[in-house]
Amino acid sequence: MQRWAKALGPVSRLAWQTESMVESALKALGGYGPSRVFSSAVTAPATIPTTNSQGAAFPDDLRSTSGLGKGDSLGTHTSKWLSEGEGPMEMIARVPPIAVKEKVVACRGGQFSLGHPVEFIKVYGTTEAEPAVCKYCGLRYHYDGDH
After folding, report:
1. What is the CATH number of the domain that holds 94?
2. The domain containing residue 23 runs over which residues?
3. Residue 54 included in any domain
4. Strand partners, 142
């Protein structure tokens, strides 16, 4: 320890020791500077690993790799469920708005066991062009009763 560190007191001595420990750790890492050691950039490996971290390999085990690159033509982790087909928003848009004679509708989402929580929707004042929409299933309702 240098002579000036003894004269500065215990707090400054601790700071000097910490700085020297960081410098020695950086030298041990091969001379990388602090910006190189504490960088947040992450690069993906060129090939997807076929073994787990302990080195064991399991045939057709897609848990650790999300199935990418295993011959099933998946390019991204979302391509399995985001296909080019018709999605749920397009399917529910094909259903025409339901005309009701009550001012308040209880939407259950279809069948009792496969539905959603009951939502009471105020439909008074709505039209077929501007229906009230269920927030769970997207079914649309409009008022078709007497005023």
Report:
1. 2.60.260.40
2. 3-37
3. no
4. 99
- Is there a domain that residue 28 lies in? yes
- What does the pLDDT read at residue 143? 95
Please state the domain count of the chain: 2
What is the tens place of the pLDDT at every residue in 91-125? 899 999 999 999 999 998 877 677 889 999 999 99
DSSP 109: -
Token pair for residue 111?
């069948």
69 neighbors 48 (Cβ within 8 angstroms): yes
**Residue 125 domain-assigned?**
yes
Query: Which is it for the CA torsion 70, 76, 77, 80, positive or negative?
Result: negative
Nearest to 147 by CA among 130, 127, 129: 127
Decide if 138 contacts 92 (C-beta within 8 A): yes
Q: What is the largest CA-CA distance in the chain?
A: 97
Entry pTM: 0.45
